[in-house]
Specification:
The protein has 272 residues and is an alpha/beta fold. The protein folds into 2 domains: 121 residues, no CATH class; 126 residues, Rossmann fold (3-Layer(aba) Sandwich), CATH 3.40.50.280. It is 50% helix and 11% strand. A 6-stranded parallel sheet has the order 1-6-5-4-2-3, with helices on both faces. Helix 2 crosses helix 4. The C terminus is likely disordered.
């Protein structure tokens, strides 16, 4: 039976601020920038939802700009007091959430939302490529992060991967993942756990079906987790019994794996 855990999403305000491209965007962004700049001495405390909310709004507007440049945007956020980790862990996910809400509310078109999401991925990649991270062999674990072929949103998995790498873990990210591909990867690499990232009810349902087949393939208790923004809401009505944990908290997942590691050695069924 999957356990449901509340993660860091709960620390971010759910207030919906519409993102609408208009001639007033420059003025609005300037006002937000000014408000953040006045509070920059406190911005290194990313748990404050008000400042994160304003930064997420600013970033969502920036990523819709036709002149978007990830280096310039990163520099602006850093000048406001945000470090790279806070930008990845808080600002980018919140900006993506705002884009999605604006699309649902018909204040952004699908193409605009797609462009904005692509620019957020560019920013994330730019930050990640500049990091000097090595695998911690003493307590680092090996994870497989999957986005099922039924899911089109990939940003959440990429953010999760960056978080895990910073903790000293080794991982493989597989997008558009099919059942046979996941089994091949697990057979070849013997990962400590598999993470699935979902952003819709349909993908959660399809992913659950895939995981059911994975359970039938591997005889040992391979830890498998389901995560994503608002995962508790979008997975309602989905049979989650084959997941060990449904959570937005990486700490909860890695702690579960650590406990699992202390159990007897694992083995495979073999051919499938």
């Amino acid at each position: 039976m999957a356990k449901v855990d509340q993660g860091l999403e709960a620390s971010v305000s759910d207030k919906n601020i519409g993102i609408t491209p208009s001639s007033d965007d420059g003025l609005i962004s300037s006002l937000v920038y000014s408000a953040l700049n006045k509070s920059k001495d406190h911005l290194l405390r990313p748990a404050n939802p008000e400042w994160i909310e304003e930064a997420g709004t600013l970033l969502a507007r920036q990523c819709l700009d036709s002149t978007f440049d990830q280096k310039t945007v990163l520099q602006e956020l850093m000048e406001l007091g945000f470090k790279n980790d806070a930008i990845v862990d808080y600002c980018i996910p919140l900006a993506a959430k705002k884009l999605g809400e604006s699309w649902v509310n018909d204040t952004l078109s699908f193409s605009e939302t797609t462009v904005g999401s692509a620019n957020l991925q560019k920013l994330l990649k730019f930050i990640a490529e500049d990091r000097q991270i090595s695998f911690n062999s003493s307590n680092g674990k090996r994870f497989l992060i999957c986005v099922h072929e039924s899911e089109q949103h990939t940003l959440g998995a990429l953010v999760m991967g960056d978080m895990l790498r910073r903790q000293g873990h080794s991982l493989k990210i597989k997008l558009d993942a099919k059942f046979s591909e996941i089994c091949d990867l697990q057979n070849s690499n013997d990962y400590d756990a598999i993470f699935f990232s979902c952003a819709s009810f349909l993908s959660a349902k399809e992913t659950a079906g895939c995981v059911k087949k994975i359970r039938q393939t591997f005889r040992y208790n391979l830890p498998i987790f389901l995560g994503g923004s608002n995962i508790e809401q979008i997975s309602q009505g989905v049979n989650l019994k084959d997941f060990d944990l449904v959570t937005s908290s990486l700490d909860a997942a890695t702690e579960y794996v650590e406990k699992q590691r202390k159990k007897e050695p694992l083995g495979l069924l073999g051919a499938y």
